[in-house]
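Re: the request from the purification team.
They wanted to know what the chain is likely to look like in 3D before they choose a buffer screen. I agreed to run a prediction and write the result into the notebook, where they can find it.
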Amino acid sequence: MIDVNRKGQVWVFAEQHRGRLDDTPLELMSKARHLADTLGVQLGALLLGDRVSNLTDKLIHYGADVVYLAEHPLLGAYQTNSYAQVICDLIHKHKPQIVIYGATVVGRDLAPRIASAVKAGLTADCTDLQIGDHKLAKTGEVLQNLLFQIRPAFGGNIIATIINPQRWPQMATVREGVMPMPEPDVKRKGHVVKESVKLSPQELPLDILQEHTRPRKVDLKVARIIVAGGAGVGSKDNFKLVWDLANCLGAAPAATRAAVDLGFIDHDHQVGQTGTTVRPSLYIAVGISGAIQHQAGMAQSQKIIAINNDPDAPIFHIAHYRILGDLNKVVPRMIRAIKEKAIKD
């Protein structure tokens, strides 16, 4: 049965690792704050871990009205079973109408398990979330204030809007970097609800003996200038041109999925639908055709310069400045011009 009168809160899963909040849940707070305000409900943050109460103030400063704090030694290291059990218990107890997760490795693992357990729908890898009304075709009934879950579909060739009117809570994972990071307000006030957690070692299928993590080689989300190369660069050796141009500009080197798959550069540098979403002041696309999957990750750049020898390349449709020519000639000239200007200055 469709519950059109549900007035539960909007929740964000506040993913943390080793006592440090990830950027993704903080990015989601801005969108979640807008959703909660539109619905006229409170914004809640779910914080699970061991001795992580020091993070509650930060979540409040970024927009949370309520932080649900679940602390337990067995929540110190992420495991699907323990985290899913605790969150499912909290969903049954507090009955939120929307729960949002980051489309991180943890979020993509955790959200489907919870959706299955609470028998709710889940839309993965959303790029936008809105509140809207939907008219049922059979009855003509208008369902108000549903979560519109917006994401690329069919290989990025269309943008789909998905709704879940019959199962609650409405849940979605949201891609990293697609929401702007909000400015914290250190004067904001909220409250913390300490939840009791009942877990035993027998309920966890794994014993974590050691944990090894590798930091990303580059943080593209904070880069002001990005120089990205595509399959059109031609080879890993030729990709050095991208590195050289990036070094001249103090920029971050990046790539399309095709360039990563060809081994030109590693996945940490990938921009696009299956990589990082970026919004730099300047994005230089070198040998990139501009498939919609790549555009999904960089189209919001303030200025885009595209270098390509194909006048019909899709990247030219969104570029602010278009350079039609051989990148092997254009890029070295750009590097020389930048170095000469640096010497003069």
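For the purification team: The first strand starts at residue 10 and ends at 13.
Please add any questions underneath this entry.
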